Amino acid sequence: MANTLINVSNRLPVAIQNGELIKSSGGLVAALEGLPKGDYEQKWIGWPGAEITDQKEQKQIGRKLANEHGCIPVFLGKEEAAGFYEGFSNSSVWPLLHYLPNYLRYEPEWWEDYQKVNQTFADKVLEVAKDGDLVWVHDYQLMLLPALLRAEAPHLRIGFFLHTPFPAPQVFRFHPRCRELVAGMLGANRIGFHAFNYLRHFSGAARRLLRIETELTQVSRDGHTTALGVYPIGINASKFEQTMDSKEFRERRDEFRQAHEGKRLVISVERMDYTKGILHRLEAIDDFLAKWKQIDNIRFIFVSVPSREGIEEYQHLLEEVESRIGQLNGKYATLLNSPIHFIHGSIPFVDLCALYALADVALVTPLIDGMNLVAKEFIACQRENAGLLILSEFAGAAEELFNALFVNPYDSDGVAATLADALGTPIEQRRRGIQAMRERVIRYDAQHWARSFIEDLASDSADFAAEKSNIKEAKNQIKRAIESEEKIALFLDYDGTLREIEVEPSAATPNLAIETLLRQLEQRPNLDITILSGRSESDLAAFFGSFSFRLIAEHGASWRQPGKKSWERPHSNLKYTWKDKLLPILRVYEQTTPGSMVEEKPSAIVWHYRKADEEFGEWKANRLTQELSALAANQPIKVRPGKKMVEVNAAEINKGAAVARVLEKLPDYGIAICAGDDLTDEGMFELTLPRLLTIKVGPGATQARFRIADPAAFRQFLGDLFK
Ligand code: GDG
Question: What is this structure's pTM?
């Protein structure tokens, strides 16, 4: 039997209007309609768009929605729906996602409603979902849902798609709940974006706001990994092709042609939304008409679908647009023509196709837009005609529609000039560029988009299983050693391995979970434990003084044997004169990199930059590593870039050498486990000693044989093994 794909979006593709079920026409609806029917049985969970309080009526509508449309309604109270939808989602998150902090409003009650509604959605999904189902959550109204689902059903495969842009982390940070929102999304196994830029910004936001390590396309947190991918949404191409083949289409197109006889047609189609740049476009049209002069032969058609009418900003926008269009028509109309034809409403699909097919130019100038399907739909309808697309460079679609005429929507002069150029371009010249784009739009359609996301999400679970089976192998090896009562040497790095990294190193003290785990390990027979870290003697003594473990501080410079209180320095013959020479260099970096600091240890000097701006800090760290490495060539030292730090210490002193030294004294060990998270731990992973089992905790390149997602997962791993 086919598995089920459960789509979850704020609105169902079917809405209740005056007791009737009406199928809605949105970008997302079209895309999912295009998904191959045979692969997955589809269910859709969402809000039906009307307040229904009567339980009997809810049941009745629920049954009808399920039987006729495969839809499962989530009923919301009027107040709560307003706080969730008009408040938090559309007055708070939407503007920021579109780089418009001036529109950002925030009320604590909205946040309450947003959490509540996301929880209501979670309850409904959990009621419906079975093992093996895929859950695909859509868009910014449901950012908390993935994490809520994961908390209850950790084995569910959850996808999340963001249909809007994701802004630079500096902008998203303005939101008072930015951390919770990012953490909510990270409950998903896979998150999809329209463009690479959005992905990069999200990855940066996760790193900066949650202080976790990320790879560009992978984020691990609390033992769970989220993959990030780019999936530019397409249009429902076959629906456009079929419509253009129909008699009705031809009739409507001919009617429109007659109605607009002798006029160049310039069209704009969109929801009435401030992100779509309507007022800026009207400025450009003013500039254009002032120069064009032949008013009788030009007509602008604006189709603006009513949107979010309960929100004040949207009401103002409509008033302003209407008034501006009135002014412009008053200013430029002749007895034969009013240049701007404005429809505040939705037109039938076939009319939309006819309009696209007939237009000379589509003027698509959002201030910013996640993708913008209108641009792609217009191109798809240029089957016979060769209309030109003027496209905002800030729409996601700009990355794909390479032969469009790109404009900056804020530059009204530029838009006006581009429009004049477009109208003057001979048809032959237009045709060439458009056909190449048309082929692309038809090939990479909504079906392709949905299929590629779903395929990746489905195989993520396989990867997850593969990763687990890989670690399972490590587990089995260790279990065998435990069962045959062999001696096990366990080498544990601390920061980033046993314990999550903190911005302030002094805050990363062992928490209760770590203490309990270590006590548990201490009780085990045949287990020889070494904690080895770059930290100082005093830190290790403070953290682990009460345990009977071997402690190795400063990457191997200082040792405390099991059961002893005193420290010894096996490399005491080493000279550290190089420190005086190199310290001034580190001081320069400290001074010129806000948020960084130098630490002096007896055997090493370290430059830390955890609190510095991330990119600046990394760039400086690379430069410092290069500078120091050049000097290290003829010195007995090693430069080690680690996590948010660059350390210089004696070449002989490293964790690999320390492990080898311990094992020399334990010739009868059955298996030696080395676990670490950063470059300073690679010394252990590179050892070629027998019966060595190496584990990297977290992302990044490594020589280690096994990998575990993060410290939480590693603690769980140890806890399970050494019960
Ligand atoms: C969000 C993101 C992203 C419009 N007027 C009529 C009509 N439409 C249809 C269009 C198109 C859809 O509505 C609008 O889609 P867009 O992509 O342009 O914009 P948003 O609504 O803001 O969508 C956006 C999208 O999600 C998908 O991920 O591209 O960036 O903001 O399909 O054709 N349809 C009919 N009559 C109309 O009058 N029938």
Answer: 0.82
Same domain? For 621 and 705 the reply is no
Q: What is the mean pLDDT of residues 695-703?
A: 86
The pLDDT of residue 572 is 80
Examine the fold and report which residue of 603, 620, 650 is the final residue of a domain before the chain moves on.
650
Same domain, 12 and 150: yes
Which residue, by CA, sits nearest to atom 35 of ligand 1?
Answer: 349
CA of 371 from ligand 1 middle (Å) equals 9
194 CA closest ligand 1 atom index: 28
Residues with CB under 6 A from ligand 1: 25-28, 30, 163-164, 233, 269, 271, 303, 305, 346-347, 349, 352, 369-374, 377
The values of phi and psi at residue 405, to 5°, are: -95, 115
Q: Which of 590, 621, 650 is the last residue of a domain?
A: 650
Give residue 29's domain range.
3-230
CB atoms within 10 A of CB 546: 12
The answer to whether the beta carbons of residues 357 and 384 sit under 8 Å apart is yes
Once rounded to an integer, what is the mean pLDDT over residues 217-228? 87
Tell me if 470 is assigned to some domain: no
- Asked whether residue 475 is assigned to any structural domain, the reply reads no
According to the model, what pLDDT value does residue 44 have?
93
CATH code of the domain covering residue 31: 3.40.50.2000
Q: Which two tokens stand for residue 415?
A: 């838009």
Q: Indicate whether 629 and 518 sit together in one domain.
A: no
CB 227 within 8 A of CB 321: no
Q: What percent of the chain has pLDDT over 90?
A: 72
d(CA 709, CA 723): 21
Kindly state whether residues 312 and 337 are assigned to the same domain. yes
pLDDT in tens, 324-361: 999 999 999 999 999 999 999 999 999 999 999 999 99
The minimum-distance atom of ligand 1 relative to the CA of 345 is 38
**Residue 146 alpha carbon to ligand 1 centre in Å:** 25
CA of 277 to the centre of ligand 1 (A): 14
Do 542 and 591 reside in the same domain of the chain? no
Domains in the chain: how many in total?
A: 4
The residue whose CA has the least distance to atom 1 of ligand 1 is 163
Angle at 15 between CA 9 and CA 21, to 5 degrees: 140
Q: In the numeric block, which tokens belong to residue 364?
A: 């698509």
Q: What is the CA(309)–ligand 1 centre distance, in A?
A: 17
Q: Which residue CA neighbors atom 4 of ligand 1 most closely?
A: 270
Which protein residue has the closest C-alpha to ligand 1 atom 38? Answer: 346
Give me the CATH number covering residue 504: 3.40.50.1000
Catalytic residues: 493
Cα 714 from chain centre:
25
Instruction: Name the residue among 703, 663, 717 with its Cα closest to residue 498.
Output: 717
For ligand 1, the distance from its centroid to the CA atom of residue 270, given in whole angstroms, is 6
Residue nearest to atom 26 of ligand 1 (CA): 163
> Which among 22, 142, 162, 269 is the best mutation to test ligand 1's pocket, defined by most ligand atoms within 8 Å of the CB?
269
Phi, psi angles (nearest 5°) of residue 530: -125, 130
Which of 374, 445, 453 is the best mutation target for the ligand 1 pocket, counting ligand atoms within 8 Å of the beta carbon and taking the most?
374
Are both 436 and 368 inside the same structural domain?
yes
User: Residues 551, 541: contact at Cβ < 8 Å?
Assistant: yes
Structure tokens at 85: 């939808």
Please tell me whether residues 374 and 519 are part of one structural domain. no
